[in-house]
Amino acid sequence: MVFDKEESVSLVPLQSKGKPRICAGCNQRIRDRFMLQALDKYWHEDCLKCACCDCRLGKVGTTLFTRANLILCRRDYLRLFGMTGNCAACSKVIPAFEMVMRARDNVYHLDCFACHLCSQRFYMGDKFFLKNNKILCQQDYEGCHSKSNSDMEAQ
């Protein structure tokens, strides 16, 4: 199977005089009037399904996605393997399925959501402050002797 690829799904008529077609999903002969063609194979309409949500791929569109030996609909492919953006602290990509912390418009890996000065990690419900778009714990925020406090906000 091809990894990380978008493929088309086609509904094609079964040729009654042609050689018998075997479904790639159930390994049974296809006797229906129409069959699906995808991944260079033939399928019953009910057999070509998303590995996550079990939706019939011939009904939800004309494309499917493959990755890590999974056949997926577009929605589940993006949910599992799509990208949400970059972490504001480490600048690395955050996969769409990963849990994140947010502060204003910034998104962080859970491990990166920490005080910029002392590296103390924050957890859900912890109080933190933003100064110049950097996260600070209360102790470092209070110890900071900045003359301009207009850009600081408690979160």
TrEMBL record:
* Stored SUPFAM superfamilies: Glucocorticoid receptor-like (DNA-binding domain)
List, alphabetically, the InterPro entries matched.
Answer: LMO_RBTN_TF (IPR050945), Znf_LIM (IPR001781)
Keywords attached to this entry: LIM domain, Metal-binding, Repeat, Zinc
Q: Which organism is it from?
A: Umbra pygmaea
Question: GO MF terms on file?
Answer: metal ion binding
Q: Which Pfam families is this protein grouped with?
A: LIM
Q: Which PANTHER family match?
A: LD11652P, RHOMBOTIN-1
Where in the numbering of this chain does the LIM zinc-binding domain appear? 21-83, 85-147
The protein here is known as LIM zinc-binding domain-containing protein
